[in-house]
Amino acid sequence: MPGFPRIVFSHDLFEHRTKGDRWDRVRGKYLVPRRELNRAKIILLARDPRDCFVSLYLQLTRRDPNAPVKLKQKTVSEMLRDEKFGMRAIINAMNDWLNEFSQRDNFTLVRYEALRASPAEHFRDLLAGAWRIIARRE
pTM of whole model > 0.90? Predict the structure, then answer.
């Protein structure tokens, strides 16, 4: 539809590191293409890594029927220290996103907890920022 923005939701770097096989990673199957990152407005919705871990743990051990049995059998403590899915991996992905995007003009950081606390205010700010970027391009 003309005038309606195209939106891509992705866990990008985290999925790149945790999904698929070596061939998927070599070809960047789960990464947003570089030209799209340069063209599009990037909104990073950051959440407290502890909450991300709890959500991921429950997803992998209880909700995802396709999760490997080996992951489903891990304790919270084992998963917390897991090389691919543990706290260190989550924080590394978040820090890598910030390092990659934070200096760009087309980047906005939105904190999940702030959005939950005051959705109207933060969503309004987000839309206003997107509008300023669109207006600059025209």
Answer: no
Distance CA 122, CA 47 (A): 15
Q: What is the largest CA-CA distance in the chain?
A: 54
Residue 88: Cβ within 10 Å count: 14
Q: What whole-number distance in Å separates Cα of residue 72 and Cα of residue 37?
A: 34
Distance in angstroms (rounded) separating the CA atoms of residues 83 and 78: 10
Three-class DSSP category at 111: strand
Residue 73: phi, psi to the nearest 5?
-90, -5
Residue in the structure block whose two tokens are 């934070």: 102
For 81-103, the pLDDT digits (tens) are 999 999 999 999 999 999 999 99
Give CA torsion, residues 87, 90, 92, 96, to 10 deg.
Answer: -170
